[in-house]
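Human
Can I borrow your eye for a moment on a structure tokenisation matter? Give me a protein, with the fold worked out from its sequence. Write it directly below this note and I will take it from there.

Assistant
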Amino acid sequence: MSTDIGQAPPPTGGIKAPPSDGGTKGFKGKGDARRRMREVEHQLNAVRRRMWELKHQTRAIRGRVFALEMDERPRREWVLLRWRYLLGGHAIWERDIEPQIAGFPEALQAWYRGVNTETLMLNVQERCLRYERRALRGLLRRLTG
């Protein structure tokens, strides 16, 4: 789509067209960045709450030998769900857990597989949201600096 010289192209995505009167207030973007930061924080809290719930659900299984554990590094601000044996060692799904659940009732096997899939997704979501939060902090420093 072509436009005449001097005519602004139609707005795309979340970018607003400039006001027709030229505007008197400069756009700084801090409000959008702060709003997105609040959304990211909210989403990160929801992901971490779900991680905590899954951890406790796996611990509620009778006769379990393994469960999910939240590995937290407060200084780096990250949280990761991992399978662990009750005696403390790390357990890898493919090598350790999956072969052990083969003898479980089918419904319990399906439940564990679903939990593992959700765990993988939550770990990725947590990492992506943490990265976005860090990028937004940098953007806000630039906009306010």
